Amino acid sequence: MLSRFSLPALSGQLRFDDLSEKDVLALAIASEEEDGRIYATYAQKLRAAFPASAAIFDAMAEEENEHRRRLIDAYRRRFGDTILPLRREHISDFYARRPVWLVENLGLDRIRAEAEEMERQARDFYVAAAGRSSDAATRQLLGELAAAEAKHAGKAQALTEALIGGDVRKDEDAASRKQFILTWVQPGLAGLMDGSVSTLAPIFATAFATQNPWTTFLIGLSASVGAGISMGFTEAAHDDGKLSGRGAPWKRGLASGVMTMLGGLGHALPYLIPHFWTATAIALAVVFVELWAIVWIQNRFMETPFLRAAFQIVLGGGLVLAAGILIGGA
User: Three-state DSSP class for 14?
Assistant: First the structure.
């Protein structure tokens, strides 16, 4: 069952198929111990903002500790008190846990998804391990643990219903969505607005002043990249997120900088076309799409009334575009 993850064995590593029952039990003990610590870490990360979800992961950590205790009892019964220090990284074709718990601002939905994947991998391991065991009691234990891991998704749901009422779950999901908006959407939207609107005047002024597509493209490229770098550093530097709760500064800076650059490049790239009027027509069409995309994002994520957003963005962008064309054609 684990063979589909097989990789060539590195020097000093074992393969799952070569493990003895003693090795498998030692590996299971170490795996349950690590999973319990991961769930405890998730609980600690969530405790301040999502206390009810933190309680769920506390309960899951406690269950992993119970699994570990049962495995240790089985190991002692068969092989004595000294447990082999065998861990996942010692097995070449064994699954590894992604170190996502190291991320400081890990989202609630991502944590839930990672927990589901952990339980699926653990279930597959116990199914494979049970099929290799010749000792009846050990085989029964491994089979029971496989069934327990398979039921964890249902248990997590039951724990959620028991510990998190409908209103609390809605509040936690709303808080998670708010954090996503503050960290990614708001800085990205500000960048897209700045890149799309502020570069209209220099790009189209250059276009109509020179009627040279290549020169226009170079001006647009420099304006977009420069604005992206400026907006990214400004967003990251002006707020470390500790007091405002807006998230890691590098995330906000990345969102703002990238979207600023893309907003300007959208109507600069058409000027790679050597025919001036063709490039300009396509650039104008791109501007139309960009402005309405901004309106949609404002309405969808920032809950700005659609008509107000359309009036502000389309009118403002149209005025900047007209200014650039008039200045360039003067």
Answer: strand
Amino acid at position 123, single letter: R
Amino acid 230 reads S
Q: What are phi and psi of 296, to 5 degrees?
A: -65, -45
Q: How many domains, in total, are found in the chain?
A: 2
pTM: predicted TM-score of the whole model, two decimal places: 0.57
- What pLDDT is attached to residue 250? 85
Residue with tokens 């099929």: 131
Q: What is the mean pLDDT of residues 58-69?
A: 90
Helix axes 276-301, 306-329, angle to 10 degrees: 160
Which residue, of 133, 164, 195, is where some domain finishes? 164
The verdict on 175 and 158 lying in the same domain is no
CATH of residue 7's domain is 1.20.1260.10
Shared domain check, 221 and 293: yes
Give the chain's radius of gyration (CA, Å).
28
- Which DSSP string do the residues of 251-282 spell out, in sequence order? HHHHHHHHHHHHHHHHTTGGGGSSSHHHHHHH
Local structure of residue 228 (DSSP, 8 states): H
Q: Which residue range is the domain that position 232 belongs to? A: 170-329
Give me the mean pLDDT over the 91-102 stretch: 71
Q: Are 237 and 249 in contact (CB under 8 A)?
A: yes
Backbone angles phi, psi at 20, to 5 degrees: -85, 170
Q: Could you give the angle at which helices 21-46 and 51-79 cross, rounded to 10 degrees?
A: 160
Contacts of 63 (CB under 8 A, 6+ apart): 148, 152, 155
Please give the Cα distance from 267 to 263 (Å, whole number). 8
| Residue 323 near residue 201, CB atoms below 8 Å | yes
Assign residue 8 a region (left: φ > 0; alpha: ψ between -120 and 50; beta: otherwise).
Answer: beta
